[in-house]
Design goal:
The protein is an alpha/beta fold. It is about 30% helix and about 20% strand. It has one domain: Glutaredoxin. The protein has helices at about 5-20, 65-80, 95-105, 125-130, 160-165; strands at about 35-40, 45, 55-60, 85-90, 115-120, 135-140, 145-150. It has a 5-stranded mixed sheet with strand order 5-4-3-6-7, with no helix packed on it. The longest helix has 18 residues, at about 5-20.
Amino acid sequence: MKVNFQIVKISLIILLVNSLLTSSSAQKPVEIIPKFVLYKFDNTPFTNKNLEVGKKTLFIFFDVTCDHCQQTIQTLSSRISEFKRVAIYLITLDDKASVSKFLNQYGKNLIGNRNVLILKDKKDQFITRFGPRKYPSVFLFSSQKKLLLYDDQDLKLEKFCNIINTPN
């Protein structure tokens, strides 16, 4: 059976928007990194146990068709030197070809960067386990895996840059 991933993606986005609109309170981001299974684009599983130890962790939940995501990734790419002490995980529902094209256009400095890993949410866990409110959602966790900052409005990543190099 051939699956149309674009239809699946649109359905997931509709589900996310619908759940946000119908919930009695807005979704709240997690306070501590939860258990999860995401996948590298070679289909290797990546779990919370694989996160780098002793480093702050930055998760960016993005969609390649989102204008605000494009701006956020472009900002991260242009300021990547300010994030060199942080483990960065870019989380998406999109396919490898779309993400590759997206990064070549908006995130060239992220490609091949040692502290950046792109992960696909094949099991649709990120939304329910992390609690992003919209695209893009940026989470910064301490080295103890506690939430330091969540934002889905700071497209220039200013708040994150201001605290990124402070002691854990």
